[in-house]
Amino acid sequence: MNKIKTVIRSNRTIILSYIIALLIFIAISIVRPGFASPSHIRILIIDVSILGIIALGQTFVIITGGIDISIPWIVASSATFLTILSSGENNNLAIIIPLILLGTTFVGFINGVGVSYLRIPPIIMTLGMNSILLGGLLGIMGGRPGERTPTLVQFVTNGNVRGIPVILILWVIIIILATIVLKNTTFGRQLYVIGNNEKVALFSGINIRLAKLIVYCLSGFAGGLGGILLAGRIGQSYLGMGDQFLFLSAIAVIVGGTSVLGGSGQYIGTVAGAFILTIVKGLLPAFRIPASAQQVIYGVILFTVVVLARSRELSKI
Amino acid sequence: MKLKWANLIPYIIIAFIMVIIGLLQPTIVRLDWVGIKTDSILPLALAAVGQTLVMLVGGIDLSMGGVISLTNSLAAIKMTDNPINIILFTIGMLLLGLLLGAINGLIIVKLKLQPFIVTLITWFIYGGLALWVLPTDRANVPQKFIDVLLARIAGIPVSLLIILGIVGWWLYLQRAPFGKNILAIGSNERSAYLSGVNVGRVKILVYSMSGLFAACAGVYRTAQVASGSPTAGNNFILASVTAAVIGGASLAGGKGSIAGSIIGAFILKLLGDLLVFSGISSYWVSLFQGLLLITIIAVVSITELVRRRREVGA
């Protein structure tokens, strides 16, 4: 009994995030009939999974006290290369997909080398990388639109196996793996020490540089995987398709109870954050206002959530 | 002495670029060319000045993208041809920028939140407001407004006078208490606080000024391009940080120079021109900007590491 209590107490923020997500969901289902219909819930699950997978790397990076701004164009590059290399055909996916994931992981590797070995501040390193990818992709495409997404990828994003969305199965596996890595491995525990106090981490003999390098590689990998799935969701690729994911991935992590200063948080919290963000977004069309006004309201709501989370954190000190 | 050499680097680079441009295109380097260049660089220079102020206190302002887009969009469609309206509207836009910046500063200081996160969210919100007032690019800019801002006074462009004014202000600021407080906070916030600097107030003022300079950039861009775009500001974020970094600013705070950042803005734009001269498509420009930013920071960082290692060794 006591053990359950301590588990609840130590995970209060995350549990609260899930309760908030559930309450918002119920509230919207009452206001908007059809919101809780099975077909709409399927769409929600696809969107949440994509955001959750993209935010996987961001969670690890933020736990170590960093940030990855290059996510938007990692996502866009991955989706674009998927469609132009495959020309919309399924034939060579077995080569193309590993190649793309290797490529985006390599982008993360460069970020990691810059941050940990060259001591470049994460914001500058990844901001610069984002610009490099943007310019590179624009230069390669030369203004051409992207192509169709192969049907096999579309199936992975939108399809079902025995009624369960394929993407959900993939995501649940990722959630389990990420949680085990963060909670039960030496590497995972080291990330928290690094985020809390790098000096302590250094004196405890943790290889800080290597740990940070791995974390940025993971972020590149997760962004690449998310980009492939996003291309599957949309059915094609276009240049600005990753733009919203810098904002969404960072806010999902913070709403999920991870401190922006690093050293705390869990991936399961980010999962809740992704749910909240996606559900709130689903609420906006109910207002019958232009998309731009929806963006403003969305921003204000999320700002309020971040501010509330922060005031709770401040009151604890 | 070492520090002084480092401060000269941007000036050496710009001299170098000017020589190359002069060799490649000897016919274009004339006084009116300088005027046209200054006009087109001023928005970025203004943004870079605001970004430098924020970087001096160890912060970053991403919301600048939203503020520039919003003021550019509003100025492009809502201004009428009446001179009094133009003046009042311009003042209104600058006040709006000041207010939006103050909101950033207040939240960052009062809630002790990371500047990066706060300005990321306000960038999203201000950018949404810009799209709200102006869904797509449109031009309805009064000719008088354009004429005044692009005017030549005795052959000297207004844009150049604005730049000289800002440089003069910076020279004064370095000696004034406010400027000294900014530098003190940037080099060590804790000791600045202990020596009686009102850290919170200075920071809020700095973010407000960053908003003000962003609004100046947005308003001037309206005259310079003679149109408004709801996403115009997004290109300014990386560019303003890069210009500040070329000018010697560091993200850790306490280092940087407004005059250097203005030179940084010139370098960035002229490098873009050089690329186009050499036949490279303008699509690639972002790639070179990003590479430049990372390379400079990496060089600064490595020199610092080597210097520290040598000190430890000795």
Give keywords.
heterodimer, A: 317 residues, mainly alpha, ABC transporter involved in vitamin B12 uptake, BtuC, two-stranded antiparallel ribbon, 2 strands, 1% strand, B: 314 residues
Question: Could you walk me through the main structural features you see in this protein, from its secondary elements to its overall organization?
Answer:
The complex is a heterodimer of chains A (317) and B (314). Chain A is mainly α and 317 residues long. Chain A has helices at residues 2-10, 12-31, 38-63, 71-86, 93-117, 122-141, 151-158, 166-184, 186-196, 198-203, 208-234, 244-255, 267-283, 291-316; strands at 160-161, 164-165. Chain A contains 14 helices and two strands, in the order H-H-H-H-H-H-H-E-E-H-H-H-H-H-H-H. Chain A has a two-stranded antiparallel ribbon. The longest helix of chain A is centred in the last third of the chain and has 27 residues, at 208-234. The model of chain A has no long low-confidence stretch (mean pLDDT 88). With 314 residues, chain B is mostly helical. In chain B, 76% of the residues lie in helices and 1% in strands. Chain B is built from 13 helices and two strands, in the order H-H-H-H-H-H-E-E-H-H-H-H-H-H-H. Chain B has helices spanning 2-24, 31-56, 64-78, 83-110, 115-133, 143-149, 158-173, 177-187, 189-194, 199-225, 234-246, 258-277, 285-313, and strands at residues 152-153, 156-157. The longest helix of chain B has 29 residues, at 285-313. Classes of the chains: A mainly alpha (317), B mainly alpha (314).
Secondary structure blueprint with pairings:
The complex is a heterodimer of chains A (317) and B (314).
Chain A: H1 2-10, H2 12-31, H3 38-63, H4 71-86, H5 93-117, H6 122-141, H7 151-158, E1 160-161, E2 164-165, H8 166-184, H9 186-196, H10 198-203, H11 208-234, H12 244-255, H13 267-283, H14 291-316
Antiparallel strand pairs in A: 1-2
Helix pairs in contact in A: 2-13, 3-8, 3-11, 3-12, 3-13, 4-5, 4-6, 4-11, 5-6, 5-11, 7-11, 8-9, 12-13
Chain B: H1 2-24, H2 31-56, H3 64-78, H4 83-110, H5 115-133, H6 143-149, E1 152-153, E2 156-157, H7 158-173, H8 177-187, H9 189-194, H10 199-225, H11 234-246, H12 258-277, H13 285-313
Antiparallel strand pairs in B: 1-2
Helix pairs in contact in B: 1-12, 2-7, 2-10, 2-11, 2-12, 3-4, 3-5, 3-10, 3-11, 4-5, 4-10, 6-10, 8-10, 11-12, 11-13
